[in-house]
Design a protein that fits this description.
Homodimer. It is found in: Cytoplasm. This is Acetylornithine aminotransferase. It is a single chain. The chain is of the alpha/beta class. It has two domains: 151 residues, Aspartate Aminotransferase, domain 1; 229 residues, 3-Layer(aba) Sandwich (Aspartate Aminotransferase, domain 2). Helices cover 40% and strands 18% of the residues. It has 15 helices and 17 strands. It has a seven-stranded mixed beta sheet, sandwiched between helices. Strands 1-2-3-15 form a four-stranded mixed beta sheet. Strands 13-14-17-16 form a four-stranded antiparallel beta sheet. Helix 4 runs parallel beside helix 12 and helix 13 packs parallel to helix 15. The longest helix has 25 residues. The radius of gyration is 21 Å and the shape is globular.
């Protein structure tokens, strides 16, 4: 019998947690589907999906069953040994994508760290040490390690931590001319998000991704697609590159892969993977049986025509409702993104005020997100029920009405 839990409240966060986050004023304690309950028993509609993580909502029975079954078998065995869930998951992911090989880790940052290291090692082995430069996009986000935060194109996250990793440059997103001017025979990789998530839910233009692929081919550089946020059905295809018909050399994913259980991955080809030999990279927890068992259940459910077509249908439903609210209250007139990754771009009158809208929605028991100060971001469950969409939009409408009347 376990000891009783010590009572805690939101104020405790400010006393005992390192202040890298400023969480909302309430503490969620239970979730079911796309509804969440806080400590007081208040019910909220969840349009955040744990920031594009809870791909099947909260407490999905298939994920609970997969985790519970594996928990009774084997939690951790280390990478001195392999395990069945990791092998099954890798086989399903490679069968469904361009890739031949998978590398499992614990987060999107770790997946990108592995991708950037692999790209440099591949170029070093094939072309020599001078070919080590990485190009990414301005306002991109690729993680919080020193390497990934330097590749990310947001100085507010990378400044103030001493010398930065060298050989990284940034060019404007969706600007093919700028990329063409920057790329050279010293470039080992170009890394792009198919949809820039953190900086405003901005999709890549078709011609931009196609052009980036061609430029990489011309300069013997690898194209890395960071699908940490866009992968695992989020855009209405299993991975966003499938919407564009542009195949990367390396793909990274995390967030939705575990449906809430921490796991990340890197996918690549046999040729490229061969440049990570035994001992060149590693992870203690990566490929953990618990994480891989849950992720396998996620893949089995998400990679079906019913779920993927449902994501596209839900996008249209959200878009219609959001545009009506935006126009009715003069908040925003553009809704962009794909599938269940949606950005509402605030108009000039409301620029910089995304936090106010976030707070107003919370007062109406609706959980939403920001993507910078000028965009409201929604990343709900891929299988959110129609009744929850309707009720959530009603609450959003109510929040907008009160905010604009104030």
């Amino acid at each position: 019998m376990s000891a009783p839990h010590t009572p805690v409240e939101r104020a405790d966060f400010d006393q005992v947690i390192v202040p890298t986050f400023a969480p909302a004023a309430f503490i969620p304690v239970r979730g079911q589907g796309s509804r969440v309950w806080d400590q007081s028993g208040r019910e909220l509609i969840d349009f955040t999906g744990g920031i594009a993580v809870n791909v099947l909502g909260h407490a999905h029975p298939a994920l609970v069953a997969a985790l519970t079954e594996q928990a009774g078998k084997l939690w951790h065995i280390s990478n001195i040994f392999t395990n069945e869930p990791a092998l099954r998951l890798a086989k399903k992911l490679t069968a469904a994508t361009f890739a031949d090989r998978a590398f499992f880790c614990n987060s999107g940052a770790e997946a990108n760290e592995a991708a950037f290291k692999l790209a440099r090692r591949y170029a070093h082995d094939k072309f020599g040490p001078e070919k080590c430069e990485i190009i990414s996009a301005v306002n991109s986000f690729h993680g919080r390690t020193l390497f990934t935060v330097t590749v990310g194109g947001q100085p507010k996250y990378s400044d103030g931590f001493g010398p930065k990793i060298q050989g990284i440059s940034h060019v404007g997103y969706n600007d093919l001319d700028a990329l063409a001017a920057a790329i050279s025979d010293k470039t080992c990789a170009v890394v792009l998000e198919p949809i820039q998530g953190e900086s405003g839910v901005l999709p890549a233009d078709q011609a931009y991704l196609e052009g980036a692929r061609k430029l990489c081919d011309q300069h013997d550089a690898l194209l890395i697609l960071d699908e940490v946020q866009t992968g695992m059905g989020r855009t209405g295809e299993l991975f966003a590159y499938m919407n564009y018909g542009v195949t990367p050399d390396i793909l990274t994913n995390a967030k939705s892969l575990g449906g809430g259980f921490p796991i990340g991955m890197m996918l690549t080809t046999n040729e490229i993977a061969a440049h990570f030999s035994v001992g060149t990279h590693g992870t203690t927890y990566g490929g953990n049986p618990l994480a891989c068992a849950v992720a396998e259940a996620v893949v089995d459910i998400v990679n079906t025509p019913e779920v993927l077509s449902g994501v596209r249908d839900r996008h249209e439903r959200f878009k219609r409702g959001l545009l009506e609210i935006g126009q009715r209250y003069g908040l925003f007139d553009q809704v962009r993104g794909m599938g269940m990754l949606i950005g509402c771009v605030l108009n000039d009158a409301w620029k910089g005020r995304a936090r106010e809208i976030f707070d107003a929605a919370e007062r109406e028991a609706l959980m939403i997100l920001q993507a910078g100060p000028d965009v409201i971001r929604l990343a709900p469950s891929l299988i959110i029920e129609e009744a929850d969409i309707a009720e959530g939009l009603t609450r959003f409408d109510r929040a907008a009405a009160k905010l604009t009347q104030a």
